């Protein structure tokens, strides 16, 4: 109930009706898995450096058309943080403005649900941009792989610790390492997690909750 | 995955490394990643897949009805067969959650058309698969490549027309036949019309399509018999520089054509190239080049799934030629016939695939001065070291005076070994008994071996001690599973050596001159020393353990690691593990047989 009210309120602030498609009906059995590289972990302050995303259709990760953009850093992004993400000068040669990047991303996502690892953070930082550009937070449904994973672990008690580190999930689910960790590779690995977890009970019935 | 990562992943997968940069891009642009949970049936006779699968992670099993025939792991790909022929008799089922690339059929077929090398690999694979199935019970002197017959390759059905047929009708017929080759029959003779001929003689010259076929056909069509050696067909193609050649059956009727590309793919392993290089070598330097090519040949043959004993036979043949040529190049001609250059141990048995050491010697005719050979033998050892043959730790090399002497001196030596043996002498005798003449006068070695057989007659106690070496190392009864820490098994000590030594002991007792273990087993079977069952099991087991050993050695070779005889059981697929387990139990029962037949418990 609250959810739908929020959604309506969000919709009312949409600047351009062109982006109504984001609020459209979800296509059957299609998802977008995404990952952002950012300058830090504070959505309010930090900036996006690159975005990688892939489309999932049924049991396939569509590799023919992947999404991978580098964003031109603003003045206040130090070379240091770029080094941490191993973004090379050559990557930045093809970098585009944050606005271009976000609009292309929305185009890529459409009304599909968004899958990710700690996806709330990525969505928060993307929403910071979309609010400026099209007036609304990104409205798509979120699916959190770490929650799906959590539900597949057998715990002996309510308080038992479950390690939700990305690498731990990778190892436990036997997901292949795809070379270096960049936004696109992480998005692909996350997509593989999602496909695997979907087949595992009890996740099968409960993965709809974000 | 960035395009670069995908390209890196693919280039490591045979045969994708042969794709050009552009072709690789086409490939990558037409691939998706798919996930299939355990037990998904990927394809079956009723459900042909529209994709070529490349495994990123997971395991797939291939079944022929109920029987599992193949397992596929990381970086394996399948199934070219069903994409090329649009049908399959087998079922492919996910055994462990599968994450894989899917390359769509159309792209796969395009790549095959565009890249002959890529195509060769798959066609070759098919040919080989069929051959392996055919040859399962069949073992031969020569490699399966060398003994392939014309009808072992793909004979393309051709469109046959009689003389007088209108060209237009013939072309229509050939389209129905789905072939581009038209064979014309005229007074018991055959001619051929190819696409390029139609271009040249009809299109360019603007000829009428109503002319009779014999007006443009080329006579005669060069042809071979169905049961000719493929090798001969190959030489005809190369010599005459033609693309296809007719195939006749035993009644002399034309049954189809074989294409150069199919034949080439059969011989794409360079063995013949190496062979002719050795033949043509005029200098030590030429010979070194040829010898270095051997290692690549091994890799190719292994990658094509050729059985190990075929590989070792073939490599052995080539190695032998290297030695023979070396002897001819180094030793002055007048000295060559008065001595015999021999290789011993695993080389003498023709079982050393990857050069791990060299055991060689020279036998000089009685009454001929050994000293005049010494400098040449020094040189021989130096050259072999330079070729990359590692030195023998026990210094069993012709440069060592102990392994370069007259016939009668060797006879004294063997007498001493047998009368007052110590452990070293048993090993020397074992190595010496496996000797094989590679250059000079063979008779000298035959004489020595006869002498050895005679000396050993009725020496039961000595033979029991000799055979006891078979039991030196333990053979596990089960294979360490994934839960254990130690997963390296020394395959030589646990399996290869016991089979070799046990069979060697039997061969020595039975006066068998053959040196390869497999041949010795076959003769022992003929002589009823071994039962049919045990003989077949030993040959199988020997094949399995040597295959595993070669595989792991090739990997170490590629990684630049030191070559040893360890295999890592954690890297084995399920089928391999089962085969290894079976082989160990065969080795263990063979050890019991040796103990019993040589009455070893009486001496210990």
TrEMBL record, chain A:
What GO biological process, any one, is recorded here? DNA replication
Q: Which domain of life is it from?
A: Bacteria
Question: What SMART domains does this protein's entry cite?
Answer: EXOIII (SM00479)
Which Pfam families does UniProt cross-reference here? RNase_T
Q: Which positions fall inside the Exonuclease domain?
A: 30-203
GO MF entry, a single one: 3'-5' exonuclease activity
Listed InterPro entries:
DnaQ (IPR006054), Ribonucl_H (IPR013520), RNaseH-like_sf (IPR012337), RNaseH_sf (IPR036397)
Its GO CC terms are: cytosol
Q: What is this protein called?
A: DNA polymerase III subunit epsilon
Species: Candidatus Marinarcus aquaticus
Q: What is the lineage of its organism?
A: Bacteria, Pseudomonadati, Campylobacterota, Epsilonproteobacteria, Campylobacterales
From TrEMBL, chain B:
Sequence ranges assigned to domain Cyclic nucleotide-binding in this UniProt record: 15-129
Entry's CDD domains? CAP_ED, NT_GlnE_GlnD_like
Q: Which Gene3D superfamilies match?
A: CBS-domain, Jelly Rolls
Q: Which InterPro entries match?
A: CBS_dom, CBS_dom_sf, cNMP-bd_dom, cNMP-bd_dom_sf, Diverse_CBS-Domain, DUF294_put_nucleoTrafse_sb-bd, GlnD_Uridyltrans_N, RmlC-like_jellyroll
Report any Pfam family annotated for this entry.
Answer: DUF294
Keyword Transmembrane helix in record: no
Give the record's keywords alphabetically. Answer: CBS domain
A single GO molecular function term of this UniProt record: [protein-PII] uridylyltransferase activity
Q: Where is the CBS domain?
A: 217-276
Q: Does the keyword Iron apply?
A: no
Show the SMART domains listed in the entry: CBS
- For this entry, the protein name equals Cyclic nucleotide-binding protein
């Amino acid at each position: 109930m609250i959810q739908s009210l929020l959604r309506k309120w969000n919709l009312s602030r949409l600047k351009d009706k062109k982006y109504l498609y984001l609020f459209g009906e979800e296509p059957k059995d299609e998802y977008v898995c995404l990952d952002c590289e950012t300058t830090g972990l504070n959505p309010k302050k930090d900036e996006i450096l690159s975005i990688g995303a892939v489309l999932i259709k049924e049991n396939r990760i569509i590799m023919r058309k992947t999404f991978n953009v580098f964003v031109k850093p603003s003045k206040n992004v130090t070379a240091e943080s770029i080094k941490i993400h191993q973004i090379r000068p050559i990557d930045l040669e093809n970098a585009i403005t944050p606005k271009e990047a976000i609009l292309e991303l929305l185009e890529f996502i459409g009304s599909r649900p968004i899958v990710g690892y700690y996806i709330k953070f990525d969505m928060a930082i993307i929403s910071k941009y979309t609010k400026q550009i099209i007036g609304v937070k990104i409205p798509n449904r979120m699916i959190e792989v770490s929650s799906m994973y959590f539900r597949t672990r057998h715990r002996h008690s309510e308080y038992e610790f479950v390690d939700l580190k990305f690498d731990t999930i990778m190892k436990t689910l036997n997901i292949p390492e795809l070379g270096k960790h960049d936004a696109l590779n992480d998005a692909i690995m996350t997509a593989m997690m999602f496909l695997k977890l979907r087949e595992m009970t009890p996740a099968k019935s409960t993965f709809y909750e974000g | 995955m960035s395009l670069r990562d995908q390209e890196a992943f693919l280039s490591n997968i045979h045969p994708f490394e042969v794709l050009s940069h552009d072709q690789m891009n086409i490939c990558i642009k037409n691939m998706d990643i798919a996930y299939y949970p355990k037990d998904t049936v990927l394809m079956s006779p009723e459900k042909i897949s529209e994709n070529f699968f490349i495994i990123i992670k997971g395991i797939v099993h291939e079944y022929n009805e109920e029987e599992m025939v193949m397992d596929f792991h990381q970086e394996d790909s399948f199934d070219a067969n069903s994409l090329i022929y649009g049908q399959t008799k087998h079922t492919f089922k996910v055994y462990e959650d599968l994450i894989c690339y899917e390359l769509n059929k159309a792209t796969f077929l395009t790549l095959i058309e565009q890249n002959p090398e890529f195509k060769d690999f798959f066609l070759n694979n098919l040919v080989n698969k069929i051959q392996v199935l055919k040859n399962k019970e069949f073992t031969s002197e020569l490699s399966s490549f060398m003994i392939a017959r014309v009808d072992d390759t793909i004979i393309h059905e051709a469109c046959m027309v009689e003389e007088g047929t209108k060209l237009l009708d013939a072309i229509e017929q050939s389209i129905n036949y789905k072939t581009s080759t038209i064979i014309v029959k005229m007074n018991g003779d055959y001619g051929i019309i190819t696409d390029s001929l139609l271009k040249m003689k009809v299109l360019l010259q603007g000829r009428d399509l109503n002319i009779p076929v014999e007006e443009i056909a080329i006579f005669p069509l060069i042809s071979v018999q169905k049961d000719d050696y493929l090798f001969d067909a190959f030489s005809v193609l190369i010599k005459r520089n033609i693309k296809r050649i007719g195939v006749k059956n035993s009644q002399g009727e034309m049954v189809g054509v074989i294409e150069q590309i199919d034949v080439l793919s059969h011989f794409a392993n360079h063995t013949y190239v190496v062979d002719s290089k050795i033949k043509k070598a005029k200098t030590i330097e030429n010979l070194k080049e040829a010898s270095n090519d051997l290692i690549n040949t091994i890799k190719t043959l292994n990658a094509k799934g050729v059985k190990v004993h075929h590989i070792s036979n073939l490599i052995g043949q080539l190695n032998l030629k290297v030695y023979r040529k070396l002897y001819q190049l180094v030793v002055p001609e007048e000295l060559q016939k008065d001595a015999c250059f021999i290789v011993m141990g695993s080389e003498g048995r023709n079982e050393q695939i990857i050069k791990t050491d060299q055991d060689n010697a020279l036998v000089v005719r009685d009454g001929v001065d050994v000293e005049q050979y010494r400098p040449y033998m020094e040189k021989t050892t130096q050259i072999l070291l330079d070729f990359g043959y590692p030195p023998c730790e026990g210094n069993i090399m012709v440069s060592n005076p102990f392994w370069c002497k007259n016939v009668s001196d060797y006879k004294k030596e063997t007498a001493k070994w047998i009368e007052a043996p110590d452990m070293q002498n048993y090993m020397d005798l074992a190595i010496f008994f496996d000797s094989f003449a590679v250059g000079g006068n063979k008779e000298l070695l035959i004489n020595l071996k006869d002498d050895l057989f005679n000396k050993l007659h009725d020496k039961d106690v000595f033979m029991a001690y000799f055979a006891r070496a078979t039991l030196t190392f333990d053979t596990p009864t089960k294979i360490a599973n994934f839960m254990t820490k130690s997963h390296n098994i020394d395959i030589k000590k646990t399996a290869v050596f016991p089979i070799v030594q046990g069979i060697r002991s039997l061969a020595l007792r039975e006066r068998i001159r053959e040196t390869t273990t497999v041949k010795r087993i076959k003769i022992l079977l003929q002589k009823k020393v071994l039962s049919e069952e045990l003989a077949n099991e030993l040959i199988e087991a020997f094949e399995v353990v040597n295959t595993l050993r070669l595989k792991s050695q090739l990997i170490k070779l590629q990684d630049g690691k030191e070559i040893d005889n360890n295999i890592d059981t954690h890297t084995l697929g399920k089928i391999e593990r089962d085969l290894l387990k079976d082989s160990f139990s065969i080795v263990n029962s063979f050890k019991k047989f040796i103990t019993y037949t040589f009455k070893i418990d009486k001496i210990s």
